[in-house]
Amino acid sequence: MSDLFDLDGSVALVTGGAAGIGFAIAEELTWAGARVAILDASPDAIARAVERFDRAGLDVLPLVGDAADTTALDSAVAAVAGWGGRLDIVVANAGVALDVGPHLETDHAALATMFELHVQGALRLANATFPHLHAAGGGAFIVTSSLAGLRGNRVLGSYGITKAAGAQLVRNLAVQWGPAGIRVNAVAPGVIDTDFAATMTRDPEVAAARLERTPLHRFGTAQEVAGTVVWLASRAGAFVTGQTIVVDGGTLIAD
Ligand SMILES: NC(=O)c1ccc[n+]([C@@H]2O[C@H](COP(=O)([O-])OP(=O)(O)OC[C@H]3O[C@@H](n4cnc5c(N)ncnc54)[C@H](O)[C@@H]3O)[C@@H](O)[C@H]2O)c1
Description:
- There is one protein chain.
- The mean pLDDT is 96.
- Helices cover 45% and strands 15% of the residues.
- Strand 2, helix 2 and strand 3 form a beta-alpha-beta unit.
- It contains eight helices and seven strands, in the order βαβαβαβαβαβαααβ.
- The protein has a seven-stranded parallel β-sheet with strand order 3-2-1-4-5-6-7, sandwiched between helices.
- Bound molecules: nicotinamide-adenine-dinucleotide.
């Protein structure tokens, strides 16, 4: 078998890694050979994730902490680097969607919270991990953005603004870190069947309208997003940087 997607010997950190898309990313990076740490704000989700890793006979470093918080991020990064002896792959995945509605009704506190996590948190994570990625001789920094950051939104407007900022963040970092051999990309999922998207996937009317506009006529799975992250993290993605890869069943390109 080709070793193009092989991550053997690398060490990864995934924020929001205890559930949904982050969990699938952590699991698939592990299957590809990486040693993976997950940072998550929910101790319960972390406990459930550890149980699932244990049942699969996989090793994981579980860390509880807020991915928006500088101190929590700094100590998580130090813990991973100490545990793994290096750091090669970083996935800024933790996210929340707090507002629903048009901008005339913008909840500015919700917008600030999402900005803190999706933008400031990703930047703080980048700052904390850069010395380790550099010391490892290069690596991959990947941000979970969203389709909501690529199209106009009636109901997820503020969330979309913060996700669009994440896509710009990866372009900036890709330019700044390219000379150090560190690649920076984003993955932009459409509707993925996790708890996060339950308001869309579990309401029959909303779901039908959404699927009507999605050429593949189904919602995505967390594993399908994780596959893209494995590609971006591995040698198979070694010439890709500064991109936002859309994983949406074709929703973005449909008329
Ligand atoms: N599910 C979708 O349809 C979809 C679509 C596009 C983008 N996304 C993005 O994908 C990412 C993951 O979404 P998901 O569907 O897996 O969500 P999820 O709610 O299923 O899981 C998110 C995980 O992140 C953790 N988390 C939340 N805030 C955190 C914080 N401040 N610090 C640390 N951990 C935190 C939660 O505890 C949870 O374990 C998010 O960034 C989201 O915006 C999701």
